Structure formats: structure tokens, C-alpha cells
Amino acid sequence: MVGTLKLSLALSGGAARGAFHLGVIAAMEKNGVEIAAISGTSIGAVVAAGVGSGVSAFDMVRIVQSKTFQKAFGFNYFKKGLLCIDEKAAILREIAPISRLEQMKIPTFITCVDLLSGEIVRFNEGESIPLAIASSALIPVFRPISYENYLLIDGGFMDNLPISPLLEFPYPIVSVNLHPLHVKEKHTLSSFIKRALFLSFIASSQSQIAKSDLYITDPALSDFGLFTFGEIMRCFELGYRKGSESILTFMEQKSII
Q: How far apart are CA 217 and CA 89, in angstroms?
């Protein structure tokens, strides 16, 4: 290796598919890639808070696999009605031990939507855990989160691939999208509901993809449920394989290796 690749990383929403993000980040860590700035929406915001806090991808996937984390986040897609994320759960502090965004080790941005104004709100200051949870508040599955003068919901409704905050930095932008644009869906009512809901997220990503220096996704992501933890390691491994392949090719093009 003749140099270290520094990059900015944008992470989409995608609930339990966030394990793919962790696999991609693990591949970056393995190949000596330095994440110099990070931006996330929804589960991407949770991962971004971990990266900004200096927590490794392998430590995060260990935490996410724990029953304590799963109980705190409570993914159970409409099976038991509206859900709450326990923002006071101690396990969340293991993912984001640095409590405020402005104190993170690298510039860290969390994207939310303010339900009251209907506007995108991007935070790089403020409480990391409440804001990461607010960015993950996919209504009607989870309740909106009150924060200061905002009523915040999932940022993916308006910007599911939050590249914009990274444009001010001099690093190549890598974006990771948990919603592949072309998928094969089962012809069931529940699959139609999920697909219709996330078409709005996909639409918000289109213009952002073009701004990426490297775009990472995989059609196989559509095989993973959004609100189940049953296949975390398989999703992580998919991200690691795809991330390794993509990053090594990109580094070769940049003459980094």
C-alpha cells in the first residue's frame, strides 16, 4: 500500500439491513481505509454515531446481535402495533459512547425530517443517541421523537442517502444503499405495502447516487427482512464481500494499492 485512502461515507436507512453497512465498514477497516466524515439516515444514523464514536464494525455487529439491543429497538413490523425505541437503554451507549455529535472523533451528520415544518433537518451538534433514534423513527411503526423545537421522524422519507453534508469535505464520497433499486418482490399484500412505503425512500436516493464517487449496494439485500434480526451475520457477510470487492477496485483505480 502506497498511501491511505480517506473518504466520506453516506449510509442509507434500511432497518435491520444495517448489518450490511457494518460489513462494508469492516471491509474498509480491514483494508486500512480511513473514514474521515460520515453521514447517516435511520439505521445509517445509528451506525454513523458508532463510527463517529470510534466503535469498530465488529464490535457494533456483536452489540446488534445481542438480545439486549434487539429488545431496545424492538423491530417487529406491524405485528404488535405501534412500537417505541427505548432511548434510555444502556446498550445504545455501547454503540455510541460519545454522547454529543460535536464531540465525535470525525465530523458526523444525522438526517431527520421535522414533521411540523416538513423540512429536512441535519444535525452535526446535539445528543447523539436521541438524534439517531429520531432519524430511525419510521412512522407509523415508531412514534415521532420530540427534540428541542422539532418533532422528528425518519430522515429517509425525504433523504434516504444523505450525501449533501459530505460535499464540503475534500474526500471521495462512498454511499451505501440498503434498498437496491431493482428487486423481485413476492406478490403478497405485505410485500406490496413494504415496497410502496420504500419506493419513496428509493426516489429520494436517485439524485444522490450520481454525486457518489463509489456507490455500493447489492440486489441480494432484497432477500433480507427489514424488521427481523434473524439473519444479521449473513447480511453482515454480504456487506463484507461486496465492500471488499468495491473498495479494492476503487483503491486500484486511485492507485492506492
A: 31
* DSSP conformational letter for 121: E
User: What is the bridge-based pairing of β-strands 150-154 and 145-147?
Assistant: antiparallel
Backbone angles phi, psi at 202, to 5 degrees: -60, -45
Q: Which residue has the higher pLDDT, 195 or 213?
A: 213
C-alpha cell read off for 48: 454513523
Please state the pTM of the whole predicted model.
0.88
Q: CB–CB of 244/27 below 8 Å?
A: yes
Closest C-alpha to 41, from 163, 144, 193, 211: 163
Which string of b and e fits 75-93 if b means at least 16 CB within 10 Å? bebeeeeebebeeebebbe
Residue 207 CB neighbour total at 10 angstroms: 12
Which pLDDT score is estimated for 242?
98
Q: What is the DSSP string of 12-50?
A: ---GGGHHHHHHHHHHHHHTT-EEEEEEEETHHHHHHHH
Select the more confidently predicted residue: 196 or 165.
165
Span 70-127, pLDDT tens digits: 777 655 444 443 445 666 667 788 899 999 999 999 999 999 999 999 999 999 999 9
Q: How far is Cα 153 from Cα 52, in angstroms, rounded to an integer?
A: 21
Alpha-carbon distance of 110 to 219, in angstroms, equals: 26
Give the DSSP H or E segment for 233. Answer: helix 232-253
